[in-house]
Specification:
alpha/beta, Glutaredoxin, 5-stranded mixed β-sheet
Amino acid sequence: MGFFSRSSEKQLVPWEDLTSEQQLIDAVNATDIAVFIFKHSTRCSISTMAKSRFEREWNTPDFQFKLFYLDLLTYRSISNKIEELTGVQHQSPQLIVVNNGKVVYSESHSAISATDSIQSLTKTN
């Protein structure tokens, strides 16, 4: 173990690319699975820091979920659809969690927390 090594192993974050409006509609309407949507601008250093922090903090929950990654620069129309379907105003970076068709967590920038987003679901289940 080196001087800068961490003693705990980092978990892999199971990102699924969000690339179509139909995929989004199906996810938001799902009743059997929690849906995390991380909106990320690949040109923004704040977005990159928020994503890195989220990944370091991620601890896979013990319930069914999907974790979507949205590249805002490539799929801006999907971001607009997220706002339309959830009522959550667009920001970047942003994390939105939907459970049973309802938004249970929505934060942006440095307020994004993997731990808090997972806890928001354990409080609603």
